[in-house]
């Protein structure tokens, strides 16, 4: 179904953004991989 695929893409995009923000702000202080 297209709706399920759309929701999957959005959730994946949000996850990537969160990880990028966490690694970006974390690189200055304590870094967690």
From TrEMBL:
It comes from the Eukaryota. This is Uncharacterized protein. The lineage of its organism: Eukaryota, Metazoa, Chordata, Craniata, Vertebrata.
